Sugar ABC transporter ATP-binding protein (Rhizobium oryzicola), 497 residues
Amino acid sequence: MTDQDKTPILSLRQIRKTYGLLEVLHGIDLDVYAGEVVALLGENGAGKSTLSNIISGTVQPSTGQMTWLGAPYAPTSPRDAMDAGVGMIHQELKLLPQLSIAENIFVGRYLKKAGRIDRQAMEERAHSGLRRLGLDISPRRVVEGLSTANQQLIEIAKALTLNAKLLILDEPTAALGGEETQLLFRQIERLKAEGVGIIYISHRLDEIRQIADRIVVMRDGSKVQEFDSGNVPVRTIVEAMVGRSLERMFPAIPTPADVTLLEVKDLCSALGHFRGVNFSVSKGEVFGIAGLVGAGRTELVRAITGADPIASGAVLLDGKDITPKAPIDAIRNGIVLVPEDRKLQGLVLDHKISENIGYANLAEVAQGGFITARRMAKFADQFIAKFGVKGRGSQNAGELSGGNQQKVVLAKWLARKPRVVVLDEPTRGIDVGARSSIYDTIMQLAREGVAVIVVSSDLEEVLGVSNRIMVMAQGKQAGILDRAEANDVSVMELATI
């Protein structure tokens, strides 16, 4: 690196961000150089998104200074940042499916000639940006039907067409397969060679060694460690993220009682998703459900909890038939579901955390049939503290990180003291620290005699937390394995029957 190269294109000094009395960023210093990938890592709620949003103009810092290409930098909107040459590619793709690629690239700032939209100029510039990424697609093609990987590259092409010199990639591989990920990495190497700086945010730590030149680790709103290479053992990164030595990911599993609590007998889906399922769960048992995508796992637990219709069979609690026709039937019997899509099915994102917790516990927060905000807030605060939610009850749930949103969903249901807890993909999209906290919660429930059902696509996870594992394949029950006989091979053999 020459002396000229040693001048950062972006510098942050003592960046702080406060919401009311809560400071979420504590004096962050960060430099990014042309032609390098800086991995920005940390648990959910560590401050990565807030910092990225400040750099990209979505959020303004409370104090601190930024410089861009040697000049003061204080964008008040994403458009300000993009005009300066800073682009952010979000995890949730924001392309408009019915518009062409060129229209998506220039949406909101169409090129004009003589007062009319200059489609030829837009398509030529869009084509140039696509070729720069090795993407041989006509800019006239509509976005609908394109693969997720190609849509991701179009988002990057959009930023490059607007002359971005710094790209912030937020979980860019979250929805990509192995080949698509390698394609993206090849394009990132091209951009590095062209002098584009990249801030790369990911929970997939095995990727970091492949793509990062430096690693910056955040924890609880502070920058806690920086590595001058991407070639750092995953364990070392994780321990920096969580602030403690990681002896084991999964806690010890308690021995369940010899008392059957929940039984499922010959259950068949009214929608045809599964048939002939039989199993039981004891008090204090963690019962895992594994299988490939489309095996019927989610549909099964939705039926058990009343969310999907049942054609035949029965659900028994303490030997009594309580087969639910609606979720309220299951809830009244002490059976609750933490769904796989927390944003769509688990929370009201534009309502307060305290309200989300209160909605599932109206009998507790209502006095004489009336609900007061003060009583709801007081009730919620104890569970926010109990589950370590990094947020205040007055915040909207949508402002929280994924891991903290999941903790709110857990809090609202566990406040009811349920007898059976069903967790569908409980750690999807959340970091290792939040996962550890959720595993601890699962084991605490088991110790208290609660029957816990865990559905997970993460085979290591379902093996790590379960006393027994039922494997499903093509809507049928392929087998039930005791912990001693369950391993990745035995589970996959059943899953692929």
